[in-house]
Amino acid sequence: MPGENLTRDEARERAALLSVEGYEVSLDLRSAVGDAPEEGPRTFRSVTTLRFRCAEPGASSFADLIAPAVTSVSLNGRDLDPGAAFDGTRILLEDLAADNELVVDAQCAYSRTGEGMHRFVDPEDGEVYLYTQYEPADSRRVFANFEQPDLKAPFRFEVRAPEGWTAWSNGVGELTDGVWRFAETKPISTYITSVLAGPYHYVTDSYSRVFADGSKLEIPLGAMCRKGLAPHFDADDVFLVTKQGLDFFHDHFDYPYPFGKYDQAFVPEYNLGAMENPGLVTFREEFIFRGKVTQTSYEGRANVILHEMAHMWFGDLVTMVWWDDLWLKESFADFMGTFANVGATRFKDAWITFANRRKAWAYRADQLPSTHPITADIRDLQDAKLNFDGITYAKGASVLKQLVAYVGQDAFLEGARRYFKRNAYGNTRLGDLLSVLEETSGRDMAGWARAWLQTAGVNSLTPQTLLSADGRITELAVLQEAAPSHPELRPHRVAVGLYRRTPEGALERYARAEADVDGPRTVVTELAGAEAPELVLVNDDDLTYCKIRFDETSLDTLRAHLGDLTDPLARALAWSALWNMTRDALLPARDFVDLVLRYAGRESDIGVLQMLHAWSGTALVHYAAPDWRGTGGRLLAEGAVAELRRAEPGSGQQLAWARFLASVAAAPADLQLLRGLLDGTARIDGLEVDQELRWTFLEQLTAHGEADEAALDAELARDDTATGKRHQVRCLAARPSAAVKAQAWAQVVESDALSNALVEATIAGFERSSQRDLLAPYAEKYFAAIARVWDERSIQIGMDVVRGLFPALQDSQATLDATDAWLTAHEDAAPALRRLVLEARDDLARALRAQDCDAAATTR
User: N or C end of the chain: which has fewer CB within 10 A?
Assistant: First the structure.
């Protein structure tokens, strides 16, 4: 990644000097098909005409471009020497005029890493599909530009594509004389421009809205995917959620959707969940479900659709000046995705998923050594790439949920409406949003921002209850703590719920009070005099962002009666709190596993159930004492089999337990059951073993030596698709063989032949918790390789390798010492690389502390 970085200071200097009037970009993509060149990468022609103004005539600046070759460069009619002007990442622009025209004719490379113009060949039918992905700074791999979010401009794209293809971009397109020409966009940032081309399966619909003033808005809708996925594409449901979302945001934002059409493309080998390109949103194609999935998957897809739609206002219409304020788009979109999901769609329990799943991501990120304020210090593009994290998304969204409770929903939404109208097509900073929220709420937003946006770390809230002799509360206080590394105590708006069992045995809330918690100890006066509770739930209803702790009575109640807690959100919050205690080495991993075994089968919310499966797997692999792992794995497998047989036939719970069994099966009987379900000799009423479930079972069988390469080849013949190929590659790398591991390592670390999706699949198969001994030699190899990988490969592949191959399964003090030795020896390594290693080190140190806690526990 040498030479590709851009610093914040450079961006500020360029923004002060230049303003952009418009782009015309012509791409010739006909080279996407046919034979590859004998030497060098496969390339396409990119011609950019860029018109811009310079505040200081005579000054110098630069344009951004990453390309194998530049054919010509012309500045204001003056031909420049490409060899002198272009260094591989930048084009030097000297002696600028007040008004300038730059024309760059370049040969840009197709990507296999999901960055820039990604080229995918479908193994099923040989068809080629193209799409672009840019955030934060990969549009310069496709056309010459000023690659920073505050130099917005209108764009005109034209595309020459192979015969029979269709091309799409942000604006409406028309094919004339063999060229696709697209309508000029509104002023937008470079990173949200987009081009898509290929023989995509395309479905259309439309949305219309009549506003109170009588005006009417018509939005053409489109949705597309590879032809091979067309039989599985439920476009009607995608359009349903899209229309519901557009209605919701029009109702609440009072600003009509500003970008014309609304296409949504589900594309292969995508690095992200989705990307908010105006008029042409892109999604990973895994959101098209080839087999049966639970309602959680549909809810998750709807949430992503609405998240990206919220970006049309938060991020696309109004954009942050620099990546420091990434939260101005991502935190709001993450919050609005769930807010709209609950308010507009069939997924009325989406806040439960948010509390249980999204916040878990935030809590982990906020306790890493790389934690940062929501408004982060982003020095350069590598920092920006790594800051698409749990802080920016999930913590930011959690804080906005707290803000809504703090200022009121009406004031919050009115602030958003004013923000859009004042800053449309412009760029903003933190203060621009805070000023309108102060107007609409009358609250001091500066103090709130200092506490919540400009400090890092998560607070813990613990109840303290004093009782009278007759069993009533004399005082209930909330104690607030912070980690020494981030000692900020914040103001929290919380609800405190009191729970006790009914005569029928249900654990239900009988009293609730809201309070502003501020400082180390806050008394909740409204609950004085209430009858003694069996459970005190701080942050009931999930109003704030914090780690919940329990007093001894409450914890004992949960141990004995967690399954009797009737409210699904309260139950999700209790589970989340217990998981945080496990991660913090306050609750032995075997105790958490025991709670899952006793109560997960009674969990009605399928999303919570699937999260419990993931957490209990992590507890077993990373947090349990090594000498208990065998026992814990056996107990989880036995529990999974029992619950699988007990679950309602055909239900989401049944499917979830089947998938969980496939992740923990190790004993011969359990593997035999998987084999029987796979070949039809065993049956469980209602369980449909479709193609996706077949691969899930095969992966575990392969990892335990119960299926060989021939079986995997046969399965690929049965499912000879791009998705099937990824499954096969993962299973091949999962085989318990030293030769297999050596081959997988070489394919990922020593070669760049694999695409991003196959790198991801190979890493996933390589890292198997049942194969710790086989993987032991790669700890030393990892530390010897990562600096070179980071320097030589794209940032996306670098991140995949550094994160995915860290020797976390070699969970010993020796691995921790080796990590520290690498960090000491590489103090001058790229900050982004050091951050990834520091994060992995912290996870390992946490695991060792949790294992010590578990080893000290007595088996219950």
Answer: C
Q: What are the tens digits of pLDDT across the range 192-244?
A: 999 999 999 999 999 999 998 999 999 999 999 999 999 999 999 999 999 99
- Average pLDDT across the chain, whole number: 96
Strand 274-275 and strand 179-182: the pairing is: unpaired
Instruction: Note the Cα 717 to chain centre separation in Å.
Output: 32
Helix (H, G, I), strand (E, B) or coil at 280: strand
308 given a catalytic annotation: yes
CB 203 within 8 A of CB 227: no
Nearest to 315 by CA among 326, 299, 302, 301: 326
CA distance 325 to 307: 17
Q: Count other Cβ atoms within 10 Å, centred on residue 831.
A: 14
How many whole angstroms separate alpha carbon 289 and alpha carbon 233? 8
Length of the chain equals: 860
Helix (H) or strand (E) holding 787: helix 778-792
Asked whether 388 and 137 are in contact (CB, 8 A), the reply is no
Chain Cα centroid distance, residue 564: 33
Q: Which residues pair with 50 in a beta bridge?
A: 23, 102
- Catalytically annotated residue among 308, 414, 643, 767: 308
**The CA-based dihedral angle spanning residues 651, 394, 113, 83, taken in that order and rounded to the nearest 10 degrees:** 160
* Tokens 């008029």 -> residue: 279
Question: Which amino acid is it at 97?
Answer: A
Structure tokens at 753: 């032949």
Rounded CA-CA distance 714/695 in Å is 12
Helix (H, G, I), strand (E, B) or coil at 508: strand
Please give the DSSP secondary-structure letter assigned to residue 389: S
